[in-house]
Amino acid sequence: MILNPKIETMPRDELKKLQSERLVWQVNRMYERVECFRNRMDVMGVKPSDIKSIDDLHLLPFSYKKDLRDYYPYGLFAEPMENIKRVHASSGTTGKQIVVGYTENDLKNWAETVARALTAAGADKNDFIQNAFGYGFFTGGLGIHDGASLIGSTVIPISAGNTQRQITTMVDFGSTMITCTPSYAMYLAEAVAEAGVKNQIKLKAGVFGAEPWTEDMRHAIEQGLGIKAYDIYGLSEIQGPGVSYECEYQCGMHICEDLFVAEIIDPDTGEVLPEGSTGELVFTTLAKEGFPVIRYRTRDICSLNYEPCRCGRTHIRMNKPTGRSDDMLIIRGVNVFPSQIEEVLLNVGGAVTPNYQIIVDRVNNTDTLDVNVEMSEEFMHDEVSSIANLEKTIVDKIRSTLGIGAKVHLVNPKSITRSEGKAKRVIDNRKLH
Ligand code: DLL
């Protein structure tokens, strides 16, 4: 499939026509080639010929992460292996790894979507892009690399980790943009401050993703590195980074709708929810050849915004995912999302930092919830502030928002282990018992 360079501003009726053609093509092809999809269509009594346009999407069966495990490693691929030019894998938190595959066209489209994202953040051929996403099976490193190469920027393929080397490289090589997870960007910002080199770095922007992050984290990164920070979203099962990205107005991430169609559903009933509702994000890949998916349940919770954007892009936006439905903890029978605890922490007036850890355990058959959070330097050095009072305030706020008791421990700045990739915010020790 050949991409149209004007695709980002395509009128919506043309976009819908393109989506419809591609969906019909994809469904017919998958019905022939992918056993799991064909079986589900047959069980539901849906024939490929029932799908005439994108409006028929809701008739199609869902697909799930479990399918990738059940058909491991290549059972869901829709092309012979000789046409698969690269595989990526993700270990996930449970079970065996999942494998995804790309044809040459898939790799081209992937690079194109990442190029759109980097360009929206201001990148061009004069930029030096320090790519601190991990290279390897993770889609972050090579995905961003190929998009940056397509633009013609100078790629600095440093990968994640080795923070001292990141700082030296940033200064010596004159990096103008940085890409990594937002939690690693926060860590780099601290390291830049410690090294006292903020006035020697030339960074102007960063593109961050692969995990949920808040507006407060954005401000902390922007201030720490002296840059504008952009969000990028994606998942291995759909392609990797570049499924959606922020434009200069930063009011949601434009979904590459020529390639991916999004729906929001009720995660319990599977029903498609009305425009603007919050629910589970579901994606269908329209042009993927190697490993296409229909109505893939991402388990990410967010909402879609259909309002036209000031930037002129016609593709709809998704709001920042607040977490995954499978991140949900059940603590003493209460449903708790880590993002709800984060929200409480960020609303105590700058006294704590966004570095925290949630520890869940089971003692005498009762769940316990402990929250360790770093206090800010200002709070620690302010003589009138009281740690005990602040801990109590946070405990009260958690109780009133979540209806559950917790123990809160204010810990010293920089005492919680920093992450070079996706931050590990939750430690659930109950699984060990
Ligand atoms: O994280 C791909 C990626 C790499 C995206 C680099 C952006 C930048 P996975 O490892 O398969 O793929 O994890 C996908 O990460 O379902 C979300 O839960 C989460 N996620 C990814 N980007 C964002 C984001 C990559 N911008 C899972 N905001 C997804 C919130 C995100 N969550």
What does this structure look like?
With 433 residues, the protein is an alpha/beta fold. It is 31% helix and 25% strand. It has helices at 12-33, 35-44, 65-70, 104-120, 139-151, 163-172, 182-195, 215-225, 338-346, 377-381, 387-402; strands at 86-90, 98-102, 128-131, 154-156, 177-180, 205-209, 228-235, 240-246, 253-255, 260-265, 278-285, 296-305, 317-318, 323-324, 329-331, 334-336, 352-363, 366-375, 407-411, 426-428. Helix 4 crosses helix 5 (139-151) and helix 7 runs parallel beside helix 8 (215-225). The chain is globular, with a radius of gyration of 22 Å. Residues 90, 133, 139-140, 209-212, 231-236, 240-241, 298, 300, 320-321, 324 line the site of 5'-O-[hydroxy(phenylacetyl)phosphoryl]adenosine.
Features:
25% strand, 433 residues, binds 5'-O-[hydroxy(phenylacetyl)phosphoryl]adenosine, alpha/beta, 4-stranded mixed sheet, 12-stranded mixed sheet, single chain
Radius of gyration: 22 Å
User: Please, what is the average pLDDT?
Assistant: 94
Q: What small molecules are bound in this structure?
A: 5'-O-[hydroxy(phenylacetyl)phosphoryl]adenosine
Q: Hey, roughly how much beta strand do the residues contain?
A: 15-25%
Overall 3D form: globular
Helix content: 25-40%
Low-confidence stretches: none
Q: What summary fits the major beta sheet?
A: 12 strands, mixed
Taking the alpha carbons of the first and last residues, their distance comes to 52 Å
What is the number of helices? 11
The total count of strands amounts to 20
What class would the helix/strand composition place it in?
alpha/beta
